[in-house]
């Protein structure tokens, strides 16, 4: 009898994992749709809330936002020195233009 309960428990755990992955996959698809569409977002938002998993979607959205924030920070750090060099060069040009007046 204990063996049957152990098997049933394993099946239930496996089913929960599959469901969780399915929901995560659906949310990933919806996030991609939100990022890439120029169409109204009403149907996408409705799909999120009709699924009764909107809290999990918001968690996944937070992860996506943090990922984009890290990408933006990396790009800013990479281009910062070039930006400051360009500003310094523009200031030099401005000073030379003032001399020409």
Tell me about this structure.
The chain is mainly α and 101 residues long. It has one domain. The chain contains 3 helices and no strands. Helix 1 (2-36) packs parallel to helix 3 (54-100).
- One letter per element, helices H and strands E, the order comes to HHH
Which shape, going by the Cα principal axes? elongated
Structural class: mainly alpha
The fraction of residues in strands falls at under 5%
Give the proportion of residues in helices. Answer: over 70%
- Give the overall average pLDDT: 79
Number of domains: 1
Pfam families: EXOC6_Sec15_N
Protein name: Exocyst complex component 6B-like
What are the key terms here?
elongated, EXOC6_Sec15_N, 3 helices, EXOC6/Sec15, mainly alpha, 90% helix, single chain, 101 residues
Q: Quick recap of the structure?
A:
With 101 residues, this protein is mostly helical. It has one domain (2-100). It is 90% helix and 0% strand.
Summarize the topology.
Blueprint: H1 2-36, H2 42-50, H3 54-100
